[in-house]
Amino acid sequence: MEKLFIEGGHKLEGTIEVSGAKNSAVALIPATILADSPVTIDHLPHISDVGILSELLEEIGGTTKLEGDTLTVDPDGMFPMPLPNGRVKKLRASYYFMGAMLGKFKKAVIGLPGGCNLGPRPIDQHIKGFEALGAKVTNEQGAIYLQADELVGANIYLDVVSVGATINIMLAAAKAKGTTTIENAAKEPEIIDVATLLTNMGAVIKGAGTNVIRIEGVDSLQGCRHTIIPDRIEAGSYMIMAAAVGKRVEIDNVIPLHLESLISKLREMNIDIETRDDSVVISNGRTEKMPVDVKTLVYPGFATDLQQPFTSLLTEANGPSIVTDTIYGSRFKHTDELRRMGAAIKVEGQSALISGNARLQGASVKATDLRAGAALVVAGLMAEGVTEISGVEHIDRGYAFLEEKLRKVGANIWREGSATSDKAEQEQH
Ligand code: EPU
Predict the structure, then answer these.
(1) What is the C-alpha to C-alpha distance for residues 199 and 244, in angstroms, rounded to an integer?
(2) Cis peptide before 300 (omega within 30 of 0)
(3) EC number(s) of the enzyme (predicted)?
(4) Pick the catalytic residue: 116, 197, 313, 382?
(5) In sequence order, what are the residues at sequence separation of 6 or more whose Cβ sits closer than 8 angstroms to the Cβ of residue 363?
(6) Is the predicted pLDDT of residue 1 greater than 90, yes or no?
């Protein structure tokens, strides 16, 4: 089993380069199915989800070539191969194979997705969208069967603002007959990124990034080249680490506009932040960190994915803070581990009450999901002594070259053990 070790107390100084956005990449890769000629995607993050999705494209008959951070997908030869089990269960984003395969082949069989366990994560809004476009959708033995004679544009109102449902419906509607309107659509930057790829492929999409998206279906989509936007959650995680233990850290390849809610909360805490065109500089000269209350909301509100690492930072604020997660009300598994390190945190309903003024101590802790892992890295950097983090496979799903990036700015972080048994363990879940 692989483990990460962090010796806390080292001050960070220098520049951290942010990778391409995971939550864009995991939608852009399945989106290539819709094209009739090769698609090249640049600036892919070096994370395990990218490898799994590329393997899934090969399983359905496509050809992929990953060179550095560039993936070329040739969809020639793809067919609607059923994917009820196997790799598809390893990550949540495999649900994008539903929209993309339905759009291209008018049918798909996809095992219900895995991914981080953040409490219930239904996909009823995705299914509502597919049905509105004319698909028959059934759930048989843990797999979703989708079939349509033809897909016809429709007006779809999402009852819940959902990133996944918005993207999945865009994918299916790109080649439907007529116009599809998604109302109460999610507005995350990753949705704009997917719409940009589809538009470059020849799709007609208006309003991505607002809460009403209109898709005019077209007969065919062609290959193109696309560069992924920077990962705002990875950037935000490093900003929080810099706020926790940084002297002066520049986070490069960032769109500061995507991080406004985090930037304002960090400033409220007393952290100095300078925003530049495509980077942010965090200077942490002042010692007192003020407590703040945070409520996660859909974009542009405070991201649920940053709630966990931010909680670690608040343990050392000079007073109590409340963190409320309105998106995933039970995304608090990291708090059990933070308590082992000496934090005083009480979870009540959808909120964590963090007492503040803790002096964290290194301990043996477990990353139960991706961002819980990031929270433990923040805590490990802050703690006295060595923190040993297991569950590293979760962290590898979202943070490319984590140790290398952090070592470059002065952290003492290393990995021990072999990854083979983790992979075997993952297959079983
Ligand atoms: N929801 C429903 N029905 C649906 C879909 C969603 O009730 O059909 C609910 C969810 O249970 C949740 C809320 O709506 O309470 C929002 O879920 P959303 O669909 O927006 O989440 P997602 O698309 O499954 C993406 C990211 C998550 C991120 C959320 C929220 C990907 C692959 N995942 O998930 O990222 O937390 O949006 O921003 O894009 C992560 O990166 O660590 C991560 C979990």
Answers:
(1) 40
(2) yes
(3) 2.5.1.7
(4) 116
(5) 340, 341, 342, 383, 387, 388
(6) no
Q: Specify the length of the chain in residues.
A: 429
Which neighbouring-strand residues pair with 328?
none
Q: Distance (Å, rounded) from C-alpha 228 to C-alpha 196?
A: 10
Distances (CA, A) of 201 to 44, 104, 142, 225: 18, 13, 33, 9
Q: What is the pLDDT of residues 190-203, one digit of tens each?
A: 999 999 999 999 99
Q: Convert the pLDDT of each residue in 30-47 to its tens digit.
A: 999 999 999 999 999 999
Ligand 1 centroid–CA 247 distance in Å is: 34
Overall pTM surpassing 0.85 (yes/no): yes
Token digits of residue 376: 């433990």
Strand arrangement of the beta sheet that strand 412-416 belongs to? 364-366, 386-390, 3-7, 412-416
CA 192 to CA 210: how far, in whole Å?
A: 9
Please indicate whether residue 116 is annotated as part of the active site.
yes
Residue 400 in tokens: 């490319």
Residues in the ligand 1 pocket, defined by CB under 6 Å: 23, 26, 92-93, 116, 121-126, 160, 162-165, 186, 233, 304-305, 327-328, 370-371, 398
Query: In the block, which residue shows the tokens 């798909």?
Result: 108
Determine the pLDDT at residue 257.
Answer: 97
* Span from the CA of 164 to the centroid of ligand 1 (angstroms): 6
For atom 6 of ligand 1, the residue with the nearest CA is 162
Q: What is the DSSP string of 293-324?
A: -EEE-STTSB-HHHHHHHHHHHTTSSS-EEEE
Q: Which spans in 211-258 are helix H?
A: 232-245
Q: Does 327 carry a binding-site annotation?
A: yes
Ligand 1 atom 31 nearest Cα: 23
The DSSP string of 11-79 is PEEEEEE--B-HHHHHHHHHHGGGBSS-EEEES----HHHHHHHHHHHHTT-EEEEETTEEEEE-TT--
Query: Is the separation of the CB atoms in 10 and 37 below 8 Å?
Result: no
Q: Which of 26, 50, 91, 121 is the best mutation target for the ligand 1 pocket, counting ligand atoms within 8 Å of the beta carbon and taking the most?
A: 121
In the chain, the domains with their CATH numbers are 3-19+230-428 (3.65.10.10), 22-227 (3.65.10.10)
For every residue of 81-112, DSSP letters joined together read --B-SGGGGG-GGGGHHHHHHHHHHSEEEEEP
